[in-house]
Amino acid sequence: xxxxxxxxxxxxxxxxxxxxxxxxxxxxxxxxxxxxxxxxxxxxxxxxxxxxxxxxxxxxxxxxxxxxxxxxxxxxxxxxxxxxxxxxxxxxxxxxxxxxxxxxxxxxxxxxxxxxxxxxxxxxxxxxxxxxxxxxxxxxxxxxxxxxxxxxxxxxxxxxxxxxxxxxxxxxxxxxxxxxx
Length: 181
Hints:
The protein is built from three helices and eight strands; from the N terminus they run βααβββββββα. By secondary structure, the protein is of the alpha+beta class. The protein has two domains: 2-53 and 138-177, Hypothetical protein yqbg, CATH 1.10.3230; 57-132, no CATH class. A five-stranded antiparallel sheet has the order 1-2-8-4-5, with no helix packed on it. Strands 3-7-6 form a three-stranded antiparallel sheet, with no helix packed on it. Strand 4 and strand 5 form a beta hairpin. The protein starts with a strand and ends in a 23-residue tail after the last helix.
């Protein structure tokens, strides 16, 4: 099974105004460096928690239908499609009636609906493609406070005067968001 992001987030997880303020930057001279830092810290926070902050699209590919298809991240916004290569190699879209999105655990999974059967697929590493959108929203207004707090505090540390100690406890603020599946 392979997961890849096919559409990246369209916005930052925190506003540049807030990030600039945390960096104690006057003006926009350091905006490029601040944005790089925010993106890096966002990726770190997402990796630690198993969540996507700003909406993005993922593709999950598998060699065939076998039991369940795990979702790549939380929270799930929508399943866009579940496609497969039939035995002749033609792309087919599985009807939404044939599968169920189970969110009883995070990040969740796609499973076969009661009474349905998985179709036969071509023998291929990428015979099944699940396309999903995951995230809290389209921009920083949807970013949970724990993520914002972590990112902005780490930006503040990064741009602090030399010799300023880093807090080893900031990462604990993300504990409440960790996905345990």
